[in-house]
Amino acid sequence: MGTTPPGRIRDSILGYLGTIGCDASLDEIHDAVRADLGSVAPSSVRSYLNLNTPQKFVRTAKGRYSISRIEEIEPIASSKTSNFVQVGGAKLYTSDCMSWLATQPTNSIHAVVTDPPYGIREYSAQEQSKLRRGRGGMWRIPPSFDGHVRSPLPRFTVLDDDDRAFLLVFFKNFARLLHRVVVPGGNIAVASNPLLAHIVSSAFSAGGFEIRGSVVRLTMTMRGGDRPKNAHTEFDGVSVMPRSMWEPWVIARKPIEGRVQDNLRKWKTGGWRRPSEERPFGDVIRSSPATQRERKIANHPSLKPQSFMRQLVRASLPLGEGVVLDPFAGSGSTLAAANFVGYESVGVEKDPVYAKMAARAIEPLSRLDLIDPIGPQLFDSVAV
Ligand SMILES: C[S@@+](CC[C@H](N)C(=O)[O-])C[C@H]1O[C@@H](n2cnc3c(N)ncnc32)[C@H](O)[C@@H]1O
Known about the structure:
By secondary structure, the chain is an alpha/beta fold. The chain has helices at residues 6-20, 26-37, 42-51, 78-82, 97-102, 125-132, 161-181, 197-206, 260-267, 292-297, 306-316, 333-341, 352-367, and strands at residues 24-25, 57-61, 64-67, 84-87, 90-94, 109-114, 139-140, 153-154, 182-191, 210-218, 246-253, 284-286, 323-326, 344-349. The chain has a nine-stranded mixed sheet with strand order 4-5-14-13-6-9-11-10-12, with helices on both faces. It is globular and about 60 Å long. S-adenosylmethionine is lined by residues 96-98, 115-117, 123, 300, 302-304, 328, 330-331, 333, 348-351, 354.
């Protein structure tokens, strides 16, 4: 510890504070620098900040700092974030969503429905090239149990403590960037998994959002349930962890202004749209995986089924008015669902291969006539 050149610490601090576009505590800055550079003593970060205040940083409160001059914030090439394709009511940008969010107007998004990368590494250029060459890396084909061809899944269990610390910083940055762009009362729905959902919840809470529970997507995720490695026969009655049969979607909300009714009038947000007058939107939805028809249209390894996405996207805007954002758009399943239910939407995808896939897939996905073979009728989100 302690041998990192001060220039790298400076760049790391400036990069972090520039990305989040607001102030942060010493702990948060130290976490971000550690996630970026590895072991760095908190005292190095503290002394760098102190030495360079007020030239580069302002102390916004006890132990909190932000960049002092706007020109210190990493320049964002507007050309990189201004090109989009329009498919019906959906706009799709090919860009890194963090820099894209930093350029968006305050209070311009009414709901966020998204499925972010979890291994952080699984959507890196390196791991994507391994996946595309069919050469493992952290992607594996889950065992077949019903004769169906399965899509590759990333191995989340390879995450170590540093990866998890990085994930927390990543989601904190993301939450802070979203906070400015989302209107008061805006709903956030983030696809997660039972091992990492707590990290997403704490990051959103730290980023100024209220946690409002989860939506449970009841589906066989093909994770867990295995017998102990290399001792299958000796312990044939044991599973190392429960076979997962659900997918949690973390639900958060930007705090409302005044009462719910005031917020609904002013911002059109602050609640969930009911599937029907008699029934509220429920937080358990039975869902089968994306169908073969969907996979033929969009061969993304994390494709979410339209039968589920249409219910969630529809419910996310209580009055059916506003813009839904998917900052990790993948092959465009959120945007397709938004087109289906007649909402305006915006997606951001940084990988040009997936962005092209989405540009082609949104329209045919949105036109699919679907009855979920496992789940109830569309929009009929009953708890089981
Ligand atoms: C889990 S997938 C989402 C797939 C989506 N649910 C679908 O149905 O197609 C996450 C996507 O986020 C993209 N991604 C990762 N980091 C990103 C970033 N910083 N900005 C924008 N997109 C990013 C990945 O390339 C990947 O396509």
